[in-house]
């Protein structure tokens, strides 16, 4: 119990951020209509590629001769970048179709 | 100085992500929202590239640039080439890639972890590995299934529920054990990784058909969570914020879909609707349905005042949305009021039908959601039900014994006339017969959705 309490106290700001982001996330997403759920899914999916930041940090701090880390990390960046670029591009493609419909109406 | 400026740009990126998601709340602002979110990630990536570190800074920009460029090219090409009907498998595979990145990070960090690594850090890394791993292999299997490369029966074992439970306990137990020992030999790490990937595979294996969207959405939230835990590892707030937002979005969509299908999440994960066998499969012997031929139906549609189209999974599978739009145009030109009633889980993923119809140039004000549709359905002249079944089952309202009881449905039976376009009398994926088919004011038009619609279009043109 003491350990848990001290852990929370040491990371208070991070935990605030976590809790409020959860609440914010639920609020924002709940207001999205069914019509847009497929674009939402693929857009959110693209955002999950944010994990790429971790891979970039890892690669920038690893030794230039540590080929294990370099190759696996670069693979991670590549895969996450496919997720990010592909996800946003395909979402844009979908939403463009919605938009076009409106202007021609 | 540089670091303090860059902390602000990270903040700007995180705000752009939130505003972007907010923009998704209306079709008019959604596109801008998506661009905002993309800009948020772009800012974050640019910031991470120049953020100064204390101590060793090797940069390795060559490796990073190569990976960024290659990834962008592959992602762009895939996004431009994919068909709109293939969207579910596209989302799955992209999701799997994000999960894979989280797994790679966790593996590298755990492999380098030594005595100096704190217990908290180790636990978070372990969590990233487990969640990311399940998201990765689960998404890959989901992709293979949705793309028709793997069938449910090929990957399901007897007592699969029990197998999954054992695998889950073994994986988590192994992970916890390795965390408490503090020092992780590479061999055991690889063992854990393999076990996690096997569990992810096995987790998705028994889930099939119309339940797949729930799984994709759940796996999406897993990937988000693994990004968030990785954010904790690197003390990076924007990773935390982005990951949590995705986790929240995936969780909410999962809950909404389960509700729209009248299922509990556990029920989806563990297995099919009560085995599906006990319910009245096939046509009951003494009940007869009336059929209609395309030319009669064409006349009826052509001279109707209002027509409501209820498109379902069958329409998406037959890729008949463009033919459907063609029929719509012909009828509208004759002054028929044509609208579409969209059930929340119509298509192959939530909201998918809206995208497919938008692609076929149907203006989105013509697409009615559940409540608006039920108001319009009452008194409509003709309702065309194309490849939908369970979402128009009256038992959901009338029969407390039905597994569908309580599920929100489109009340097609309140219209003057319903016509069901369907291949056969076989029940929908809930495995129950639909009494709507036997109602006095219902007729059936058997055949593939696309072929039937093409015939209808031909007949209407001849009028």
Can you walk through the features of this model?
- The complex is a heterodimer of chains A (105) and B (463).
- Chain A has helices spanning 2-10, 12-30, 37-47, 52-61, 67-104.
- With 105 residues, chain A is mainly α.
- Chain A has 2 domains: 1-31; 37-104.
- In chain A, helix 3 runs antiparallel to helix 5 (67-104) and helix 4 runs antiparallel to helix 5 (67-104).
- Chain A starts with a helix and ends with a helix.
- Chain B has 463 residues and is α/β, with parallel strands linked by helices.
- Chain B folds into 2 domains: 64-271, no CATH class; 294-462, TPP-binding domain (Rossmann fold).
- Chain B has 18 helices and 6 strands.
- Chain B has a 6-stranded parallel β-sheet.
- In chain B, helix 15 links the parallel strand 2 and strand 3.
- In chain B, helix 4 (87-112) packs parallel to helix 9 and helix 5 runs antiparallel to helix 7.
- Chains A and B meet through helix 2, helix 3, helix 4 and helix 5 of A and helix 1, helix 2, helix 3, helix 4 and helix 9 of B.
Q: What descriptors fit this protein?
A:
heterodimer, A: 105 residues, mainly alpha, 2 domains, flat, B: 463 residues, alpha/beta, Rossmann fold, 6-stranded parallel β-sheet, 60% helix
Please, what is the average pLDDT of chain B? 86
- Which spans of chain B have pLDDT < 50 for at least 5 consecutive residues? 272-284
Quick one: overall form of chain A? flat
Give Rg of chain B in angstroms. 26 Å
Shape of chain B: elongated
Extract low-pLDDT stretches of chain A.
none
Domain tally of chain A: 2
Question: Rounded to an integer, what's the Rg of chain A over CA atoms?
Answer: 20 Å
**Alpha-beta content class of chain B:** alpha/beta
Derived from helix and strand composition plus strand pairing, the structural class of chain A reads mainly alpha
Q: What is the count of distinct domains of chain B? A: 2
List the helices and strands and how they pair.
The complex is a heterodimer of chains A (105) and B (463).
Chain A: H1 2-10, H2 12-30, H3 37-47, H4 52-61, H5 67-104
Helix pairs in contact in A: 3-5, 4-5
Chain B: H1 2-23, H2 30-50, H3 61-81, H4 87-112, H5 119-146, H6 152-155, H7 160-181, H8 186-204, H9 212-233, H10 237-260, H11 265-270, H12 294-302, E1 306-311, H13 313-318, H14 321-333, E2 337-341, H15 352-359, E3 367-368, H16 370-377, E4 382-386, H17 395-398, E5 417-422, E6 442-446, H18 449-462
Parallel strand pairs in B: 1-2, 1-4, 2-3, 4-5, 5-6
